[in-house]
Known about the structure:
By secondary structure, the chain is an alpha/beta fold.
Amino acid sequence: MADFDFIICGGGHNALICAGYLAKSRQRVLVLERRQKPGGGSVSEEITLPGFLHNVHSAFHRFVPDLPWYKDLDLERFGLRYFQADVQNLLPTSDGRCLCIHRDYQTSVKKLERFAPRDAKTYAEVFPRWREMSQKYLLPEMYSPPMPEAEKFALWERTELGRELVSLTRRTAKDVVTQTFEDPHLRALVLYYVAVKGWDWDDPGCGFQTVMSTVGAERAGVCIGGSGQLANALFSTVVANGGLVFTDREVTEIQVESGRAVGVRTQRGEDFRASKGVVSALTPHQTFLELMDGDRHLPAPMMQAVRSYRYSRWKLFSGHLALAEPPRYRAAAYDPDCQRAVNLCIGYETLEDFEAHLQAITSGRPPAVPGMQCGVFTLFDPTQAPQGRHTALIWQVAPYRLADGGPEGWDRIKDEYLEACIARWRHYAPNLDGGNILARATYTPHDIVRNMHTMREADFNAGALCRSQVLENRPVPGMSRYKTPIAALYLTGSSTHPGGLLTGAPGYNAARAIHEYTGLPIWWNPPDPERLWAG
C-alpha cells in the first residue's frame, strides 16, 4: 500500500491551495517543502529591527479576499484577514502634483478631471468596459485550464464586448496604453500596472494584460499581520483536513516506473510512495531535467521545449526600511489623498522611463535613475511594526547578472544601490532622510536565488510572461492543462497557467484538473468559460 494518495513537490502557496482541495476531498496528501517554512514567497520576516515585519517577496495581493479558493478553503476560519484601501495607487510627479487612483473608479475620474481632463472622459468610458471584460472573460480564463486561442476567440467574438477584447488582446500592452490615453503620467501609471507584474509589455498578443492589470490595480489587498499569515492559513487548512506538510524536505527525485509517477525521494534519503499521483510545483527545468531523466519519459520535441523554457527579463532588487514616520509627500499640497495610497509608483513618469530600464537591465546594469514599486503597509495594518512606527518596501527592477561581477556582484553594490533608490523616493517625499530611517536591509536578485528554489534567475514568475509562454503555451505546449505525458504526474505552481504572482490560480486549476483526471467528485463550483462566453 502506498504511503499517500498524492505527493506534492514544493510548498508554495499554489502547492498548498492544491493540497487543500485534495485534502478536503479526503485524499491522503503529503506536501514536501525544501525550506523551514511553507508558503514560498508568502513570507514576512523581521529583517531590519525586532518588531518590524517586512513582506520579503509577496506583498500586493490583488482581488483577495474575493478569489474562489479563499472561500472554498475557509481561510478566515484560521484567522486570515485582508484590508483594501480606498486609495489604491499613487504616482507623484516632479512638478509637485500627483495621480491618485481610488478603489471607486468614479472618484478616480474626478481626480483625473483635474489632472488630465481629456483622459478623464476616456477613463470614465473604458474602465467600466474593461471591468466587465475582466469579470466575464479574463478572470474566468485565469481560473480555468486554458483553451486554444482560436477556440477561445471564436467564443469571445459572439459579443461586441468580446470582439473588442480580441482586438485589444492582439496588440501589445504598450500599444493599448498609448492608443487609449494621452497624458504621459497616466500612460506611465497604466503601463506600470503591467510591468510590475513582470509581463512583456512589448509582446503582441498580451494586450489583454492592460485591461486585467488596470482593473486589478484597483483591488490590491493588504494581508493583516503580514503576507506570512496567508501561508499560515493555507498550511492550517491542509492539516485540519488530514493532510501532512513536511518542511526541510527537498525532493531530489521523482520516481517513475513503467511510465507512471509512483513516488519521490528526498535529500534525507526518504522514499514516499503515491498511489494516485505526484504533483510538481517546481519549474519545468527542475521537474524534467533535475528530478528525473526527462529524455526517457517525454517526446523529444517536448523536451526541446522544456530546455528552451526561459525566464523573465525583469528581476527585483528590493529594499526594506524601518521608519520612525511614514513618507510625507510634497504632492500632499495638491492632493492630500496621496498619503493614503497602498501601491506607490515612484519615479516612473513617462513611457521612456520603462524603455530606459529595459535597456539597462538587458545590458546588465541597474537602472541609473530608479523607478520603483513601493509600499508602506503599516499605514493600513499597524501590527506590522511597533506602535507609531512603520515599514517601507522598495522594489526596483534590475538584472540578475551584472555586467560587472555577475550575480555575485550584487553583494558589492547592494548598499550603494539602495541609497540611490531611497534618494529617488526622497525626491518626492523629503522626510525619507537619515533621521527617519531607523534601519534598512537589502534583498538582491542573487539573494532571491539563494533563498527561493523555484525563482530561477531571480524570476518571481518562475518563467517569462510573454505570449509564447502563457495561456495554452505554459509551461510548454502539450502540458498546459496541468497533466504531463507521464501517467499520474501533474503540474502546478507559477510555471503553469496563468503564471506567477499571488493569484492562487495555478493551484486552484491544478486541483480541478487532478479531480477530473482521477474521477474525484468536484465539490466546489469552478467557472465554466464555454457557458459564460456562449453569448
